[in-house]
Amino acid sequence: MSNDIAKIDKNLAVAGIDAPGCVFHDVRKAPFEIYGLYKPQEGDTFRRIPKEVAEATSEGVAILHTNTAGGRVRFSTDSEYIAIRCTMPNITHFAHMPATGVSGFDMYVARGDNEIFKKTFVPPWNLIDGYAAIFHFGNREMREITINFPLYNDVDSLFVGLEPSATLGKGKKYKYEKPVVYYGSSITQGGCASRPGNSYEAFISQKLSCDYINLGFSGNAKGEDTIMDYIAGLDMSVFVYDYDYNAPSVEHLEATHERGFLKIREKNPDLPVILVSAPNDDIYATDPRLELRSTYTLRRTVIFNTYENAIRRGDKNVFFVDGCGLFNGEFPNSCTVDGCHPNDLGFFRMAEAIGRVVEYALNL
């Protein structure tokens, strides 16, 4: 026998739409503004990079590039409620990551210089091909809204539901409109944050008011020439280079890491580039398997060598963030769900460490 917890705790119920007359608006149309996705007004599904680039990179990236990690829609409205309705063609379920992070949208409201979390639009446990949800503010006033897309799963369409008489306008602009670009593994993509706004890139964006593009490809960030050439051509404010975990070997990392960095630097001679090694204290310091510990130490050395070589060439816009220290603070052993993927505490610690360097780089 299965128990429906929502019957005994209403706070855990997944709400449907309870707003007669609700008018739904396609976020692909003005005045909505979509960030973090590639040409979001075009095509039948949202993407993070061009389809042809994804397919030329690898089979894995071809599958993952339609996951919507880092996607956001911004707008303003005086509606008393915000509803969403989305279609999702492929549903992924993880044993170690909440559905609210894999498939959920979450919403923030601007208050001065701050972004205040208001609601996670919780998907049903038996999600098949999309869902609808709503949040009531309880009063009507003009608000600047940000809705974050899911960290995994594909999204074909997103509609925002408002009161029929509601005003709808453009959203708040970012202080730093040229995006910070992040390239890396499942950790970069957001696994295993409890909701989209708790990925480390989202934390940094909320604090610094900077736009960003999440090019994390779960298990498939290997520094291939195709993807590095594409990234090198992006118009960005800062580049965060973080694919240590996905390199299949030390030799692969050594063959690709500095080469990828030089591709970025060739087209962007003054761009701040932040090099990050794998975020795991225990692996570096205490893993009883000496061979594994040595492997991770060697990986860190490869990344640090890219940094040192750049410094020797006179590069003044390259930075190294040591993954050994990313989880430093109280309860450092409570920062992951499985020894690898950060939980919300882990992502917060990553945002603190990497965010300090991003903030410095944005103000060079």
Describe this structure in words.
The chain is an alpha/beta fold and 364 residues long. It has two domains: 15-170, Sandwich (Jelly Rolls); 176-362, 3-Layer(aba) Sandwich (Rossmann fold). The chain has ten helices and 15 strands. It has helices at residues 51-57, 59-64, 99-102, 186-189, 200-208, 225-232, 250-267, 281-285, 290-312, 344-362, and strands at 23-26, 33-35, 72-77, 81-87, 105-111, 114-121, 130-136, 143-148, 157-162, 168-170, 176-184, 210-216, 238-242, 273-276, 318-321. The strands form three sheets. Strands 2, 3, 5, 6, 8 and 10 form a six-stranded antiparallel beta sheet that branches. Helix 1 (51-57) packs antiparallel against helix 6, helix 6 (225-232) runs parallel beside helix 7 and helix 7 runs parallel beside helix 9. The termini are far apart.
Features:
Rossmann fold; 364 residues; alpha/beta; 28% helix; Jelly Rolls; 5-stranded parallel beta sheet; 10 helices; 6-stranded antiparallel beta sheet
- Average pLDDT, rounded to a whole number, is 92
What's the number of helices? 10
Uncertain residue ranges: 1-6, 282-286
CATH level-3 fold name of the largest domain:
Rossmann fold
Sequence of secondary-structure elements: EEHHEEHEEEEEEEHHEHEHEHHEH
Question: Which overall shape is indicated by the principal axes computed on the Cα atoms?
Answer: globular
Give the number of domains: 2
Structural topology:
Elements: E1 23-26, E2 33-35, H1 51-57, H2 59-64, E3 72-77, E4 81-87, H3 99-102, E5 105-111, E6 114-121, E7 130-136, E8 143-148, E9 157-162, E10 168-170, E11 176-184, H4 186-189, H5 200-208, E12 210-216, H6 225-232, E13 238-242, H7 250-267, E14 273-276, H8 281-285, H9 290-312, E15 318-321, H10 344-362
Parallel strand pairs: 11-12, 11-13, 13-14, 14-15
Antiparallel strand pairs: 1-9, 2-3, 3-8, 3-10, 4-7, 4-9, 5-6, 5-8
Helix pairs in contact: 1-6, 5-10, 6-7, 7-9
